[in-house]
Amino acid sequence: MRAEVHERLDSLVALRPQWQALESRALEPNAYLSARFVLPALKHLPHAVPVWAVSVHDGGARGGTLRGLGLFQPRPWRPLFPLPHAQVYASLHSYLGGLLLDAEAAHPALRVMLDTLARRISGLRVDKLNAAGATARLLRTVVAERGGSWHEEQWLERACLVPGPGGAVRWRQHVPAARLRTYERQWRRLAQQGDTSWHYLRGQEVEDRAIDRFVELEHVGWKGAQGTSLRSDPRHARFFGEMTRAFRADGDIFFTELRLAGEVIASTCNLRAGSDGFAFKVCFDPRHARHSPGVLNELGFLKALEEAVDDFRLIDSGAEPGSFIEQLWPDRLPLYSGTIALGRWARVAAQAAQGLSRLRRRWVAGPAQPRPVSDSTPERESRTLSLAEPPRRGA
User: What is the DSSP string of 282-310?
Assistant: First the structure.
C-alpha cells in the first residue's frame, strides 16, 4: 500500500468518486467523514488553521483502490502533549470523530496512515471517537503494535438509539409513564388549535422548500437570538444547503416534521451513512414552546420506528450531555477524546507530561475528600453500548 499527502482542496475534490466508494465499504459508517459533508464544510466554513489529508491506496502509483482517508489540522503545543502533533479534522458542525477505513483492508491501511503521520508529527488528537466502534478497537491494536500509546483526556456518554430486535420499543420503558401522559395532553391541546400531523421525509421527499424552511425556523428560535443559527452566517447557510442536497441525491437524508394547520412548527435534519443514522440539527417554533413541539416531533419518530419506518443499526443523537433527548432515547454511545502518541519516544514524553500534570493537580487540590454515599437510584435506566478492550484510564 502507498500513502499520499494532500494539502490542497482541489486534490481532495479529485478524490471524490473514490472517496464515496470508500464510504460504502467503510469499517465504521460516519456521515461526518463523508465527502458529501466534508467537501462543503471545507469550501464554505471558516478554518483557523489549514486542513491536510492522508489517503492510502493499494496498487501502483497511477491506480489502485482507496483504502483509507484521514483529514487533519495542526494543533498547538499543550502541557499534556508537549510535542508537535495534529488533530483529526472536525468541522464546526461535526459531532463524531474518526478515520475512514476500508473494512476489507482496515488494518494495513491504518498502519500505513499512522506511519505516514509519524514522519510529520509525534501525536494525533482525536475528539469524540466512538469508543464502542470498530475504528477505536483497531486504533488501540495498531498503535500498540507500533510502540505508541493512547492518552485519554475526556470520556462521555451520548444518547443514541439501537432499534434492533426489540429495541424500537425500549424507549417506552425509559420514559416515565407520567411524563408520557403529559406529552399526550400537550398533543391534544396543540390539536385543538388546528390539524396536527407528523411527517417522515426521506431522500427526494426532502424538497428544497423543506431545507429552506428548516433554516428559517431555526433562525426564529434561540439560536437566531444568540447569533448561532445557520442563517446568522451566510457561509454556514451555504454549507447546509450544499451538504443536504448532496446527501439527498443519494437518498441518505431524512427530515421529521411536526405540522400545525399545514405549517411546520418543529423539524429535525438527519443524515445517513450505511446502516447508521446521525441526528444533525433540530429546531422548533418558539411561539408554540408551551406545547413542547420539539419533544412531540421526537416522539413521532420513536413511534414510527416501532412500525419499522426505516432500517437502522444505530442512530447517534449528536447531542451534548444533559440534552432533553436523554429523557427519550434509552441507549448511550460511549465517546472518548485524547491524544495518540505515535511512537516510543512520544509515548515516554506524553506519559511524563501527564504524570507531572497529575502531581500538580494533587498538590493544588490537597488531600482527597471521601465521596458522599447516596441511596438514591436513577429515575430511568439506560443502556451503554459495550466497549471491547476498554482503554486504561490515565494510561
Answer: EEE-GGGGGG-HHHHHHHHHHHHHHTTSS
pTM of the model: 0.88
| β partners of residue 78 | 81
Beta bridge pairs of residue 55: 4, 69
Yes or no: say if 332 and 385 are a contact pair by the CB < 8 Å rule. Answer: yes
Give the three-state DSSP class for 120. Answer: coil
Say how far apart CA 117 and CA 329 lie, in whole Å: 38
DSSP 3-state of 216? helix
Smallest Cα–Cα separation from 18: which of 68, 54, 52? 68
203: its cell numbers: 431522500
Count of beta carbons in the 10 Å neighbourhood of residue 366: 7
- Site of grid cell 462521555: 156
What's the rounded Cα separation, in Å, for the pair 352 and 363?
Answer: 17
Average pLDDT over residues 142-163: 90
> How many C-beta atoms surround the C-beta of residue 288 within 10 A?
19
Find, among 158, 120, 136, 164, the residue nearest to 318 by Cα. 158
Question: How confident is the model over 171-200, as a mean pLDDT?
Answer: 95
Q: Which whole-number Å values give the CA distances from 9 to 6, 35, 44, 73, 367, in the listed order?
A: 8, 12, 12, 13, 52
Cβ-contact 97, 129 below 8 angstroms: yes
Query: Per residue in 292-338, pLDDT tens?
Result: 999 999 999 999 998 877 889 999 999 998 999 999 999 999 999 98
Q: What is the DSSP letter of 325?
A: G
Phi/psi at 188 (nearest 5 deg)?
-65, -40
CA–CA separation, 251 vs 50, rounded Å?
31
Residue 355 burial by CB count (10 A; 0-12/13-18/19+): exposed, middle or buried?
A: exposed
Instruction: Please give the grid coordinates belonging to residue 22.
Output: 470508500
Backbone φ and ψ for 393, nearest 5 degrees, come out as -65, 130
Rounded CA-CA distance 384/305 in Å is 20
Q: DSSP letter string over 190-206? A: HHTTS-EEEEEEEGGGS
pLDDT band at 60 (very low <50, low <70, confident <90, very high): low
Task: Report how far apart, in Å, the C-alpha atoms of 59 and of each of 3, 13, 189, 363 are.
Answer: 11, 21, 64, 55
